[in-house]
Amino acid sequence: MNFWLVKSEPAAYSYADLEREGRTDWTGVRNHQARACLARMQPGDLVLVYHSVTDKEVVGVARVVGPPAPDRTAEPGTPWVAVDLAPHQRLPRPVSLAAIKADARLQQMGLLRQSRLSVMSLTPEEFDVVLALGH
């Protein structure tokens, strides 16, 4: 199993939207490094969902429920991919960006090193620390 983090502006698509819909295609990623992460996701992988821009906090965990496939929102023949995500667990306490920055165990986390990247891999330890901070 691999671990990931995806970012979304809550006004555009929130974790509550994912819970309400029960499943979604994670589409619209147009960064090559983020696309490479999406392409490595496999069913069963767990994904932290981070609300960017306004809230700046991890609010829940999603599960990859479908393998990478062509992004239906992209021009045909382009290399962009999407994966199917389903809600797995809302965190009892959102984990703020400030809390992540303050935790010495998370100083190498991609969220801090490449803050503009919308999809990134996590180590199992990073995933576990954020999960623990949210409980």
UniProtKB/TrEMBL annotation:
Pfam families: EVE (PF01878). InterPro entries: 5hmC_binding, EVE_domain, PUA-like_sf, THYN1-like_EVE. Residues 2-132 form the EVE domain. It comes from the Bacteria. This is EVE domain-containing protein. The lineage of its organism: Bacteria, Pseudomonadati, Bacteroidota, Cytophagia, Cytophagales.
